[in-house]
Amino acid sequence: MAWFKRTQKGIQTATEDKKDVPKGLWYKSPTGKIVDAEQLEKNFYVSPEDGYHVRIGSKEYFEILFDDNKFKELDKNLTSKDPLKFEDKKKYTERLKDAQEKTNLKDAVRTAVGKSNGNDIVIACMDFSFIGGSMGSVVGEKIARAADHALKNKIPFMIISKSGGARMMEAALSLMQLAKTSAKLAQLADAGIPYISLCTDPTTGGTTASFAMLGDINIAEPGALIGFAGPRVVRDTTGKELPEGFQTAEFLKEHGFLDFISPRQNLKEKINLYLDLILNRPLSSN
Question: How many CB atoms lie within 10 A of CB 177?
Fold first, then answer.
């Protein structure tokens, strides 16, 4: 018997025979463009029609930047404690457990060392999917240790920021990470080891107030939201109307806060070209 039957109301399919479209087969960008998921992945998660950069995490950035996706992860099992015994709608320990199970991550940043275009580099990449990429003690500690690894081995360091800011559940301990990470980056500068900061969507709060804006070169992806406080807070604080798009990567570059904006497809090439030039080494090949 056929899996459908005709009735006066049209073709009907028995519930048990319905074929569902697999989830994630298509992606719709904010501008309404429909992209095949496989095509999107091949295009570095950038919508080919409108250039919209879909938010991705450390897994995808490591695939893009490390040669053959080969790297050694640093301090991979470092996890947060709950020294303040924080609780709002649920306990902080429960939030951490839920986030770890949902994302398969230990915290909001992963750090790794590997080769990019044949050259050694240490990369710290934040994951917004883990409690909004919030910066707590583990994030600060892992970035500090990654900087120490770059310092000890005299290899370039890169941080990919994607964060909603400081982690409120750790209060002042979270804010201390601003000074901690900034001090480590100063040590790299004193040793003449290059540090690259890549701001992605979104880069906000304490992240922007510390390591995200301290690069020897500060770059961003197109259309990234970059700022300290939200537009409403800034407007209420200053009492002034704000320019349209004043927290976009393009606005910040125009006003001197960024050195350049790089589409994700060119990111690996651009980063290595910069490092080749400042380290006075032969130009890398893809």
Answer: 25
d(CA 181, CA 210): 7
What b/e sequence results for 145-155 when a residue is b if at least 16 CB atoms lie within 10 Å of its CB, and e otherwise? bbbbbbbeeeb
What confidence tier does 11 reach under pLDDT thresholds 50, 70, 90? very low
Angle between helices 58-65 and 267-278 (to 10 degrees): 60
DSSP lists the bridge partners of residue 13 as 4
What gap in Å lies between CA 53 and CA 57, rounded to an integer? 12
- Strands 119-126, 157-163: pairing kind: parallel
Question: Which DSSP state fits 206?
Answer: G
> In the chain, what's the furthest Cα-to-Cα distance?
80
Residue-wise pLDDT tens digits, 176-210: 999 999 999 999 999 999 999 999 999 999 999 99
Burial class (CB in 10 A: 0-12, 13-18, 19+), 28: exposed
Q: How far apart are CA 168 and CA 20, in angstroms?
A: 41
What pTM, to 2 d.p., does this model score?
0.89
